[in-house]
């Protein structure tokens, strides 16, 4: 397996293999048959190394601490904080509310800037994160497997209580990244956390996209959909946002806790109807959306005059950094899209055909894209959208005879799909590689079975001793997914 160390770099042994991560020190006894020769001397090994270097550059470009330091300014001994064109007086009046997969380094960076005026703060981070203590900040770990839990709900409740206590001269700095929805959950009155989770799971399993998911989340939340900003009023609220949604819609990122919500309960009912999942939604949720219960959170109609929302990072930033690195490595680089969406299996097939078409040009090419696909869960396996994307692409390569075509032309090619947060679904992998020759007569049926069972992680764990998995660990950032397609010139 490919392993990226916590410093976002690869551990290489004798320029030939990769140090396995501790999570994969033990593999199943019965491994899937290997097809392609992956010696140190073939072009595939070089391309995989190039793909990892490009991914590393992309991740480094969206390191949250770097992004927030660019967005906030304070000159030495200054009593003013500058954000864009706005200026805020500092009077020992600063509070921090942070939630998401990348907020700890953001909180650390912000604390170093406003430390002498920081009064209090709460930071909600994923369980298992490395989070040394920060002055005047309470750090709460929760949201195991990217799902809300009692710890993350406690963090949300504490943040809302802090926000409600603020006055007109106070400043609330809100730090949010992808994963914020799971780390800042507080259901509306009349709906339990379990009922909210049941509704969200039904939508996700039906192939609902992030816009549908977060529309439901906002309307089931006592803190999202602008409600955090309302709670903090009349304090000044400044939100630093790292986007993990296509199009960078501020209402959708972390379900928009500081952004006025334009959605309605009617929109939620439409989503449920379109996905045909009304029988899987708890009665309390349906009653709320149907107006049969009274929520104690009224829809806000006032303007957010005291709120400044600042988008500081996105998939586009990562993709452009990947473009620069690919160009430095000698590839003719192209950005195909930063809005990739759709069913992971279908998108994987499309990218397989794209690989075939570009291979015929016999040029050193890099095609980059980003976005977020979805998975319709029909099996009982373990996997994630990036691994399912890769497995689908690999199966399509075999079925289109792409493998033999490329092998005959001695033109190496590889496709990588990975989540920038380092966690693809409920697995310890960020994604996986797909390439011609990865599958053959010996393992194609096994691959098809695992794909049909949404079991991509199990398949890649046992294929080639896990060498085709991308394992980064938690990266402390999240700007959706990245696909890197590399095609080399014909070898001699």
From TrEMBL:
Q: What does the record give as the reaction this protein catalyses?
A: (R)-glycerate + ATP = (2R)-3-phosphoglycerate + ADP + H(+)
Q: Which GO terms describe its molecular function?
A: ATP binding; glycerate kinase activity
* Keyword match Cytoplasm: no
A GO CC term attached to the entry: cytoplasm
**UniProt KW keywords:** ATP-binding, Kinase, Nucleotide-binding, Transferase
The MOFRL-associated domain extends over 51-289
Q: Does Endoplasmic reticulum count among this protein's keywords?
A: no
The source's domain of life comes to: Eukaryota
Q: Which PANTHER family match?
A: GLYCERATE KINASE
Put simply, this protein is called Glycerate kinase
Where does this protein come from, organism-wise?
Trichoplax adhaerens
């Amino acid at each position: 397996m490919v392993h990226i160390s916590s410093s976002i770099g690869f551990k290489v042994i004798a320029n030939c293999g990769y140090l396995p991560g501790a999570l994969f020190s033990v593999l199943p006894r019965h491994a899937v048959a290997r097809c392609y020769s992956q010696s140190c001397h073939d072009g595939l090994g070089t391309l995989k190394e190039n793909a990892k270097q490009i991914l590393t550059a992309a991740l480094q470009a969206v390191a949250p601490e770097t992004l927030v330091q660019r967005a906030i300014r304070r000159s030495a001994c200054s009593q003013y904080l500058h954000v864009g064109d706005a200026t805020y007086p500092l009077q020992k009046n600063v509070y921090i509310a942070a939630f998401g997969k990348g907020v700890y380094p953001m909180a650390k960076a912000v604390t170093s800037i406003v430390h002498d005026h920081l009064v209090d703060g709460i930071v909600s981070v994923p369980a298992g994160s490395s989070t040394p203590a920060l002055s005047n900040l309470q750090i709460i770990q929760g949201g195991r497997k990217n799902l809300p839990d009692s710890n993350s709900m406690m963090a949300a409740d504490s943040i809302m209580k802090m926000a409600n206590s603020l006055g007109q001269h106070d400043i609330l700095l809100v730090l949010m990244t992808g994963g914020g929805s799971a780390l800042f959950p507080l259901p509306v009155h009349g709906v339990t956390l379990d009922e909210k989770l049941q509704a969200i799971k039904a939508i996700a399993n039906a192939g609902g996209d992030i816009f549908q998911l977060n529309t439901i989340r906002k309307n089931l939340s006592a803190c999202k959909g602008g409600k955090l900003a309302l709670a903090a009023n009349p304090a000044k609220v400044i939100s630093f946002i790292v986007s993990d949604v296509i199009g960078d819609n501020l209402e959708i990122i972390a379900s928009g806790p500081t952004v006025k919500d334009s959605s309605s309960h009617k929109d939620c009912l439409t989503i449920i109807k379109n996905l045909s999942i009304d029988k899987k939604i708890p009665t309390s949720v349906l009653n709320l959306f149907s107006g049969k219960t009274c929520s104690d959170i009224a829809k806000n109609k006032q303007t957010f005059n005291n709120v400044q929302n600042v988008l500081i990072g996105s998939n586009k930033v990562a993709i452009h950094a990947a473009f620069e690195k690919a160009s430095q490595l000698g590839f003719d680089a192209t950005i195909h899209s930063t809005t990739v969406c759709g069913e992971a299996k279908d998108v994987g097939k499309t990218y397989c055909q794209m690989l075939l078409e570009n291979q015929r040009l016999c040029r050193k090419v890099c095609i980059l894209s980003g976005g977020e696909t979805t998975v319709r869960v029909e099996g009982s396996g373990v996997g994630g959208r990036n691994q399912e994307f890769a497995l689908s692409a690999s199966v399509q390569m075999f079925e289109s005879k792409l493998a033999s075509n490329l092998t005959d032309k001695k033109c190496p090619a590889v496709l990588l799909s990975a989540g920038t947060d380092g966690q693809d679904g409920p697995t310890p992998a960020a994604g996986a590689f797909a390439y011609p020759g990865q599958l053959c007569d010996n393992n194609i049926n096994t691959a098809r079975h695992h794909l049909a069972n949404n079991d991509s992680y199990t398949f890649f764990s046992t294929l080639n001793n896990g060498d085709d998995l991308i394992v980064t660990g938690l990266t402390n950032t999240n700007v959706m997914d990245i696909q890197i397609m590399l095609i080399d010139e014909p070898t001699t």
